[in-house]
Amino acid sequence: MAQTTLLMGGSNGTATLTAILGDKSNAANAYHILRVATRSGDKYLTTNADGVAEPRTWRCEEKRHISDLIAADFMPTRRIVHVGRPDSVFVYGGDDDVDSNDLSPLEKAISGVGAPDNGGPVDLIVLCCPVSAHLSLLRRISKALYKLNALNLLGTSSSPILIGTLYGAGGFDWMSRIAFHKGRPDNFMGWHRPLALFCLKAFPYLCKSLKVGEVTLHGRFPQIQVAVSPSDAKTRTVAKRILDRLLQNEDTGKQLEFLGLSGPESVGGDGTWGEEERVIMAGEWNGVQQGIKANSAASAVMIAARTKQQIQSAKDHSSSAVALPPPVVSSHSAVSVPVEQQRTAPASPTLDLLMTHSLSDHADPSSSLAFITCTLNSTNQILHPCILVALFRDHNNEARSDVDGTIPWNPVNTAFPRFYADGAAKPEAGVLITKIAGAEMYFVIDALERLLSPRGYEPISALHGGEPMGRMVMNYLGNSPSELGARSGLTMDSLKKEWESTFVNSASEKADNVGDETVEEEVGNRPGLINKEKILAKLMSYGLSHNGRLNAVLSPCIVVDDKPSEDGTILIKPNPNTRFFTDDTQHGLCIYLGLAELLGFDLERDMKWTLYVVRRLQRWMGKEFVLPESSENSTKQIVSDAKDMMETSAPQAFGVRSIGELRQFLKLDMFGDLKYERAKDRLLQSGLVSKL
Question: Per the database entry, which stretches of residues form a coiled coil (predicted)?
Fold first, then answer.
């Protein structure tokens, strides 16, 4: 089926997808127009013999494991080579920040106006970038979409334009609300074509490019779980078709799993999507899609024949290989089904599912709980900061490493330490990860679940523990979020505080309520709450340091002194400008600390280890995301009063200072629409009101 995808950002993820999806010898890529929009064209444009810029060809060598669930060096693997290129590349820059009657490069990339391909308006916009770049890119996208909407250049399709990210940490839906509400023009009256937002819970690839034009895919994440908004059957159906193709699920055998209240029971939902999928896949509506798919596959044979020789030459690194442009395929020619048949309503029960809402969709129409699930259960924000703290500690010179993380390193085997194989192997890494991910984060998850989710549902805590194996172990040992929340007493304490803020009017009434307590249970984080904590810490270090997908990753380092000492060591320190810092500290751990503050936790007691890690890393970064440890700060709010808090994704940075305000914030439309305001205006202008 025809699809036009726009990749934004010049990251390793963009390179990987360019090589895989741009491989026109693969029949699955027929009628898939691939565009790249990037701030610099160096990586994705090259100059041909005539001096004309054209899309660069990328080669991806994939290490495919027999199982992505347990990826170890001793497990069988095979090598697969992908070679492909985008159909068109758009370089945006300062011109996107200037109001102009002409279309900017990004606006052309989205609308297809003036594009050298035949893809028309995009179906999918994917942010392939660090979390720290999400807000700035969303603001660019929102500005472009508002302008194209006013010019009626978003296309006439009733299917939504899907906008999202390969990694949903950092409050992606929160940033979308900010970007679209901030950029909304005064005369905006609604979207002519619907929009939908998505994010993946985990980045699907572990990939690295060390040379322009080449990228290595070390492995794939075992599960593909996604949050999609709005929460309805049609959006989920469209998202499944588009994202399955983006992520090559037909090739890998992976299944897209929707998160939130409408997801499967295994992820805390009510199973709505499973019912929809069974009916839709068996219905007449799907028959039309299958016909289109069959037509695309047949046409792909011709494309494969035309490109097989040049692709094979590129795979073999032949010096005679010429990177010719892929055949231009019209997105319109892919659909052989008559227009009348396309517009025919599907039969029941498919029609009933597509046009009605389940109770779970009504309970969370924006799927905010699914996005929070992605924000709170992403693994990088747990692993990277803890490993950084453990790796960049010099036990022989603690004072020096405390300042900026400077340590000695012998580069005889690798230029820098291997981040997981060397860093995670340190016992302190396993200890910190276990204390933070196995307790402190669980306190927040469980309390927030009780205050935001419908009673009896657990869409947030259902995905605790990172990967499936970790979740299974924690549940088996009695260390689930609900169990940690109960043992610590923090969940019930948060419920009491929220009740007081909602129903108790005065300090005297609060004092009376406290006096009614006959037995004061111990509340808060304390030693012994995590069952088998020492064993878990050792298993964590061993598992990460022996993971076949991760062992080649080097640490982000800066050489302090390259003159070797007598034992051959040089001095290095961590690079605080890399995503291991900028993504996972201020857009990861700081969110947890901010939520804990909203929940009324004593951060010094209940989030002790998270605070320790953030304070150490922010010192290396020269920032103050949380207040430093000091007796003078005892009366201040550790997150809210920090001078660099606004650079984080803590809820306080979005103007949210209570759980009640968080609930209100999550009701805002993700794309700046004011449907209720327009409904109010229509009401006030109605004939009935005019008579009053």
Answer: none
Judge whether 197 and 229 are in contact, CB under 8 Å. yes
Neighbours of 178 (CB within 10 A): 21
Q: What's the token pair of residue 666?
A: 């999550």
Helix, coil or strand: residue 596: helix
Determine phi and psi for 156, rounding to 5 degrees.
-105, 5
CB of 238 closer than 8 Å to CB of 413: no
Taking residues 600-627, report their average pLDDT: 98
Mean pLDDT, the chain, rounded, equals 88
Please tell me the predicted confidence (pLDDT) of residue 277.
86
What's the pLDDT at 288? 42
572-602: burial string, b at 16+ Cβ within 10 Å, e else: bbbebebbbbbbbbbbbbbbbbbbbbbbbbb
AA letter at 4: T
β-bridge pairing 407-409 and 570-574 = antiparallel
User: What's the pLDDT at 345?
Assistant: 66
Tokens of 189: 């009256």
Q: How many angstroms separate the Cα of 263 from the Cα of each of 202, 233, 386, 427, 455?
A: 17, 11, 31, 37, 16
DSSP string covering 142-172:
HHHHHHHHHTT-S-S-SSPEEEEES--TTTH
- Taking the alpha carbons at both ends of the chain, their separation in whole angstroms is 55
CA distance readout (Å), 664 to 261, 407, 611, 654, 670:
19, 47, 28, 12, 13
Which tokens belong to 372?
């929070």
Q: CA 165, CA 199: separation in Å to the nearest integer?
A: 5
Mean pLDDT of the 451-465 span: 94
> Using CA atoms, how far apart are residues 413 and 427, in angstroms rounded to an integer?
22
Write down the pLDDT at residue 514: 53
Give the mean model confidence (pLDDT) for residues 148-163: 96
Dihedral of alpha carbons 183, 33, 91, 105, sign: negative
Percent of the chain with pLDDT over 70: 85
More confident residue, 322 or 40: 40
Does an H or E element contain 351, and which? helix 350-355
Provide the CA 664 distance to its chain's centre, in angstroms: 23
- By three-state DSSP, how is residue 498 classified? helix
φ, ψ of residue 5 in degrees (nearest 5): -120, 135
Instruction: Please give the full DSSP string across 444-506, using - where no structure is assigned.
Output: HHHHHHHHHSPTT--TTGGGTTSSHHHHHHHHHTT--HHHHHHHHSHHHHHHHHHHHHHH--S
Closest alpha carbon to 53 in 23, 90, 16? 90
Question: Count of residues for the chain?
Answer: 692
Residue type, 134: H
Number of helical (H) and strand (E) elements in the chain, helices listed first: 28, 17
Q: Is 227 helix (H, G, I), strand (E, B) or coil?
A: strand
Residue range 318-336: mean pLDDT, rounded: 38
Return the SS3 of 277: helix
- Give the 3-state secondary structure of residue 303: helix
pLDDT tens digits for 54-96? Answer: 999 999 999 887 767 665 555 667 899 999 999 999 999 765 5
Burial class (CB in 10 A: 0-12, 13-18, 19+), 176: buried
Residue 672: count of CB within 10 angstroms of its CB: 23
> Which amino acid, residue 353?
L
Nearest residue to 459 via CA among 590, 367, 336, 533: 367
State the pLDDT at residue 332. 37
Q: Is the whole model's pTM more than 0.85, yes or no?
A: yes
